[in-house]
Automatic annotation (TrEMBL):
Residues 15-75 form the HTH tetR-type domain. It comes from [Clostridium] ammoniilyticum. PANTHER family: ACREF/ENVCD OPERON REPRESSOR-RELATED (PTHR43479), ACREF_ENVCD OPERON REPRESSOR-RELATED (PTHR43479:SF11). Gene3D superfamilies: Tetracycline Repressor, domain 2. This is TetR/AcrR family transcriptional regulator. Keywords: DNA-binding. Residues 38-57 bind DNA.
Amino acid sequence: MAIQDIKSKINDNKQEKERKLLNTALHLFTEKGIKKTSIQDIVHEAGIAKGTFYLYFKDKYELQDVLLAKTSHEFFANACKKANQHHFDRLDDKIVFIIDSIINELIDRPNILKFIQKNLSLGLYSEKLTDLLDSEELGIKELFIREVKEKDIPLEYPEMTLFMIIELVSSTVFTSIVEKQPLPIVEFKPHLYKTIRLLINEKVEK
């Protein structure tokens, strides 16, 4: 077997172990909670030696951070794929569609919602995702900035506008779904979407 083939096999094996740790930890964290889940629980269910765990993660809290970022990123990626199957003349319509898709998925997956809580924005801004993402994938940040330019939308700082939108969604949706405050999510959505549209369509003062 060639040296390159050996290296490739070793790398595939490492990635598979990391995937097992991530998938197993997500299952346990959402079922039992992070406080009641030990590293031993994770490696036992994953079928991986405990010493191997520390080759990938410092502790279960670093693993939790990676999972939060990865899981929330997947929500955005899936919603963007759905949006790309439709034609939108307006950027605000497209962003509202993406946000609505994410909210509906969170409603349908209460265990994941409980795990993510108000950390949805980690899927866009966490440095922990660097080695886990497809470099060719067009995320919501790239999509937003590209369409602002293509549609000649007068936003002075597009990335900051998107950051405010995602932070707004992240900080309010969990409370609306779980605690029904300030309104149940069905009643809250129109107010949220109106604010998102205002942020995107705000005119820049000259």
